[in-house]
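Quick log. Single chain, no ligands specified.
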Amino acid sequence: MYNHPIYRKTPIFPYSPLRPHDPDWFPPTHHADPDGLLAYGGDLTPARLVAAYRRGIFPWFSDDEPPLWWSPDPRCVLFPQELRVSHSMQRLLRQGPFEFRHNTACAAVIGACRTTPRPNQDGTWITPGVQAAYVGLHALGIVHSAETWLDGRLVGGLYGVWLGRVFFGESMFSHVSNASKFAFIHWVRHLTAAGVELIDCQQATEHLLSLGARLIGRPDFEARLATLIPPENSTL
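-> predicted structure:
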């Protein structure tokens, strides 16, 4: 989840091209390579993005590549009831200076995730086209943001896709120490109250594992999606 390193120039041609006029079609996910790369091409329309997330597939590519579609195995997930909050974070949640909001500045959160420098990364996978696509999904009520505010300034947050009882985390940023973690913990609690049972973190990081995330196999992950996401909304 969240801050994908662009760790190679991917040789795309051995992988399946998506069908231009069939946004619902993706190859079977067991066709993905060991890194999780499954397919290339297509577009970032709401119909294709929703079809992808329903299958546990997400886009991740850089400016000089076509859309690349991924399905890693194993998958890093957080079961909300397994969230771990350190004593120091518990004190910050109770007494700290931050304010939590959600869906009040989603476009700004996505923009900040795109532009905030990250250690050991030369660029960002959030291209202008990706940014516009997810802002569009927010307008449809599919993408949501969790936000940390300090003295009226947006200083941290995250965004992702919410389908049924699953939240798919995409990226997070922090301009002040612990700001993204503050938003994440509040958001997990909000999702729990709303009945969400699975949070997709995509790829394991030390940060996410410290909060209680763990790895599960792709078949287990996909079986949970089939149970937790309702039948497709025909309006998309």
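The mean pLDDT is 91.
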